[in-house]
Amino acid sequence: MIEENFFSVRMRASNNGAHEQGGKHISGGELISTYGNLKNAVNVLLEKALSHSRGNPDFMQIQFEKIDQPITRLSPLHVGTNEVKSVGEGQLVARNLLEKAGVPSESIEKAYQQITEFSEPRGAILFDVRSGIRIDERNEKGVRVSRVDWLTTNFEQWADYYKMIQSHRVKEALVLATKVCAHPVTVAELCWSDDPEYTTGYVASKKLGYQRITNLKKYGDELGCRIFFVDGLSDLHSYIDYLEKQPIFVQWEEENATRVN
Ligand code: PML
Ligand code: MG
After folding, report:
1. Taking the model in full, what pTM does it have?
2. Which of 48, 60, 144, 205 would disulfide-bridge 101, Cβ 3.0–4.6 Å?
3. Is residue 205 domain-resident?
4. Start-end of H helices in the chain
5. Whether the predicted pLDDT of 3 surpasses 80
């Protein structure tokens, strides 16, 4: 049998120069592709960055590399949607969910005190729930979760089954949250987009699943947020290595599903 090779394809785009030269982050994207699909994969990421509401990029990098490790398959987190009427209500729901997921309330408070600062990195912040401090040491870069994907046909079957919108954005976010929450030290993730036209965000955890919250920031706001709350992290390097390098395919099996609607 011929083993098929898979490739990690990554894109980052910015305006006013490259990110490392202080350019404004416009868009980023991750895919896993076969060799035969690379042209299409590159094109998907190119399109994503060329039509972004954060603006037009004047720098873009798209790269691919062969994946040498075996790819782990994970079931998608269960999804719930919390309809809220205001940002205030949405943020209250987010805090309650974080607490339910196991983040101590003092730690949530400390994270929220630094939320503007935590919006600056283009990647995620790692936040230790015991000390209440940021621990990733990645400054303005943050940690970028990579090597993740979900085959479109399988995603569409999942979306049909649960009557979810077939949104590329939801797919990407759910894939990322599924990978992050599968690691034992992750207690929860808090996220909202840096896209000024998108106000829905989520809290995710193994226990609660992927809990969407329909209003977590004001329309027009370009400040996003992505915080991974961690507990018991003894090896920062291996956690970051998991997030950046361990290849994951999300794969949904109808027979394991529980219909919720
Ligand atoms: C992003 O676009 O960067 C994050 C989107 C998070 C919410 C996606 C959803 O609607 O579930
Ligand atoms: Mg974005």
Report:
1. 0.95
2. 205
3. yes
4. 38-50, 87-101, 105-113, 115-118, 152-162, 168-182, 236-245
5. no
